[in-house]
Amino acid sequence: MPRLVLAVDGGNSKTDVALMNADGLLLSWVRGPGSALGAQRTAALVTRLAGIAARDAGLATDALARAHGAYYLAGADLPVQVDARREAVAAQQVLTSVEVGNDAWALLRLGVAAAAPAVVVVCGAGLKCVARAGDERYEFPGLGWQTGDLSGAGDFLAREAVRVAARAEDGRGPDTGLRQVILEQLAVPSVRAVAERMLAGTLAEHRLGILAPAVLDCARDGDAVASALVDSLAVEVGTLACTARRRLPGSRRDWTLVLGGGLFADPDERLLAAVRAAAPQLDTDFTVTVPAEPPVAGAALLGFDHLGFSADEAVRAGFRDAAPRLVCPEELSP
Question: Gene3D superfamilies per the record (predicted)?
Answer without folding.
Answer: 3.30.420.40
